[in-house]
Amino acid sequence: MLTRYSGNPILVADKGSAWRDVKVYNCAIHKDSSNIYQMLFRAVGYDWISRIGYAESSDGIHFKVDQSAVLKPWYTWEVKGCEDPRIVKIDDNFWVSYTAFDGKTARAALTASKDLKQFGARKLLFRDWRYNARTQFTPDWSKGAAIFSEKINGRYYMLFGDSHIWNATSTNLIDWVPNITPVLTGRPGEFDAAYVETGPPPIKTDYGWLVIYHGIDTYDVSKTYRIGAALFDKTDPTKVIWRSKQPLLEPSEPYEKVGFVDVIDGGFDTLKKLTLEDLHELSKREKLPKAVFCCGAVKEHDNLIRLYYGAGDTVICTATVDLQTILSS
Q: Whose CB among 55, 77, 110, 209 lies 3.0–4.6 Å from 202's, allowing a Cys bridge?
């Protein structure tokens, strides 16, 4: 349903840079009033620790990457990685949510910046979260926080979660109160039957808040991440008013179907031992999960939406779609 950029992927690992020499993926994006695109992306080096890098572009396609990571693990609760950033700008601050991983538990975290290169204090958002639907998760597992770009009825809103998607509210953008009732969940028999997870920060449209999310069809070894969409009510961002029946994007290109996919059985411990040839063989045998994963999207002009997505958990790609095309799905 989306039109892929013919030159995909637009960003790949750099073998000469230790912190991003294995893979780059799952990026956040901001486009300012002068049409400069600022990207935060997740990178993994051969130490298999995730860090967040910065890149900039004048056309949204060709990005210049800063030589050093801008957000690195600092606290014990993120010692194994800062992952999957999302960006929203409110007034003069960029609010960056990301996933903090300590090697066992993934937790939603938050920081702020004036320029997306220097960051202030970091905090975990939901220290006492106990409502995940997947029994194999640790009790306080939470991730995928995405903040709405403006106050609604006097409060800020956020979507977060994987397995289900929940919402949380705040009066100051720092302290967040979660709602334990999911606002979006899987649909039996659909592309998102087994699992849903938040995507980029919601985009305000004439029809409501456009929420792009990820869905998984099954939990077996051939599971596939696809990208779906929903509309949330303009004045009540806990209310879903429409949801796509078909995925907007699913892995079909070679660079989307084969890669160092995080959710392979055994995770990073397994990936460390695999070569690219091993991955191709697993793919042929339908034992390699497939993934397209989007943390960043911008409204280009009129109703054209540009998505930035990780493909195969290994490279970064982009694709565009008209809002009307999304709503026809």
A: 209
